[in-house]
Amino acid sequence: MERFNRMLQAAQGMGMSNAAPGADAPNLIDNSETVHISSLALLKMLRHGRAGVPMEVMGLMLGDFVDEFTVRVVDVFAMPQSGTGVSVEAVDPVFQTKMMEMLLQTGRPETVVGWYHSHPGFGCWLSSVDINTQQSFEQLTPRAVAVVVDPIQSVKGKVVIDAFRLISSQTLMMGQEPRQTTSNLGHLNKPSIQALIHGLNRHYYSIAINYRKTGLEENMLMNLHKH
C-alpha cells in the first residue's frame, strides 16, 4: 500500500502543476464548485455499476482541477473488487500501482481527482467505510471527490448520481456552516432522507455535477439498462 501511495503522490504532483493557485488550500470560500463529468466517464461508471449488481463496485476518476470552481473528470478505470451491503471491500493496492505506472508511461496529463463507487438500489450517500476511504484520498489531495452512482435507479436516461467531499474537522469543531452551492444557475437537488440520516451536511457535503450528452450518447444511456 505504501508503494501505491508514493505512486499516487507522484501522479498528483504531475497533475497539480497546472492547478490554480490556492487550489489545495484547506479553507476555501463558499462558491458554486461543479464536477464536470465527461460522457465517456459517465457511461463507463454506469456500465461498471450495472455489471456488478447486486454487489458494489469501485473505480478511480482521472481528470484535473481546472480552477477553484471546476473539477473535470475525463475518464475512469475500474478496480477489481466488489463489496457487500453498503461498503466496498478494501482496494487492491497492487492493481492500483500497476495502473498508475502504466498511466505515467503513456504520458497522460490527467491525475487522480477522486474515486467512484456504486450503491445499487439504495441511493447516493456515504457510509462510514466510504467516509474513511474518502478521508485517505483527501489526505493526498484535499479537493478529491467521492462520486456515488445508483445503477438500479438510473434507468431510461435518468442518472442517479452525486458527488461528495468531507467537512473538515476544524469546521466541525468551530461550529461553522459547511460549504454551500451559491450559484443561481440550474437547480438544486433536494437531499434524500437516507443521505441526511447518513451524515450529509454533518460529515460531508454535496457538490453539483454537470454532464452534457450528444444525441448518440443519450441513446446509449437510454439503452444501457437493456444490457
Automatic annotation (TrEMBL):
MF terms per GO, please? Answer: metal ion binding; metallopeptidase activity
Q: Which UniProt keywords apply?
A: Hydrolase, Metal-binding, Metalloprotease, Protease, Proteasome, Zinc
Q: Record keywords: Hydrolase included?
A: yes
Question: Which PROSITE patterns would you find in this protein's record?
Answer: MPN
What biological process terms from GO does the record include?
Answer: proteolysis
Does the entry feature the keyword Ribonucleoprotein, yes or no? no
- Name the GO cellular-component terms: proteasome complex; proteasome storage granule
Ranges of residues in domain MPN = 35-170
- Cite a single Pfam family from the UniProt record: JAB
Q: Which Gene3D superfamilies match?
A: Cytidine Deaminase, domain 2
- Give the highest taxon in the source lineage: Eukaryota
Q: Which InterPro entries match?
A: JAMM/MPN+_dom, JAMM_MPN+_peptidase_M67A, MPN
Similarity comment: Belongs to the peptidase M67A family.
Q: What is this protein called?
A: 26S proteasome regulatory subunit rpn11
Q: Which species does the entry assign this protein to?
A: Emergomyces africanus
